Amino acid sequence: KYNPEINIKRGYLDIKDNVSFLYIRDALRCFGYKGGHFQKAIWHIKGTSKYLWFPKLYKNKDWDNSLSDDFKEIKMKKTNKSIIIGKIEKKEWIVFAHYKNVLGQVIYKFLGEFHLSINKSSNKCWVFERKKTKIIIKKITS
To answer: Using CA atoms, how far apart are residues 119 and 80, in angstroms rounded to an integer?
Structure first.
């Protein structure tokens, strides 16, 4: 179930397939990553405008991120309600949400491709809207 090879051979990721991974590096492997353990929340797919993002969609020490009930919108806010430092750019975010499954294991669940909504965002809350529920891996990695 958590094996990236299944998705690589299939050639796509689709939310209908309930795609999840135990490790960030397994999600990265779908997009050509060859390295070992990886613990950052963001990874850029070289030669593209696409990034993989592994947000914790619950309140934690630094962030208070949330996912809408329909899974179509992510709101990103600082826990201390301060201004988010960074440049609002048009990037494409392939999202694997950091979750704990029913067994208590941390997994990274594929939620689709999200784009930052400049109209809905402010300097204290960035809003990302889902644009795709299916990602063709070969189109990105070739």
So the answer is: 23
Of 72, 80, 85, the C-alpha closest to 126 is 85
Write down the pTM of the prediction: 0.92
In this model, does residue 142 exceed pLDDT 70? Answer: no
Q: Which residues contact 76 (CB under 8 A, 6 or more apart)?
A: 55, 63, 65, 84, 125, 126, 127, 128
Report pLDDT for 115. 96
Q: How far apart are CA 103 and CA 117, in angstroms?
A: 35
3-state secondary structure of 121: coil
The amino acid sitting at 105 is Q
Is the pLDDT assigned to residue 44 strictly greater than 70? yes
Burial class (CB in 10 A: 0-12, 13-18, 19+), 38: middle
Distance CA 32, CA 25 (A): 10
Q: CA dist 90 to 57, 93, 95, 101, Å?
A: 21, 10, 15, 32
Closest C-alpha among 72, 79, 74 to residue 53: 74
> From CA 132, how far away is CA 115, in angstroms rounded?
9
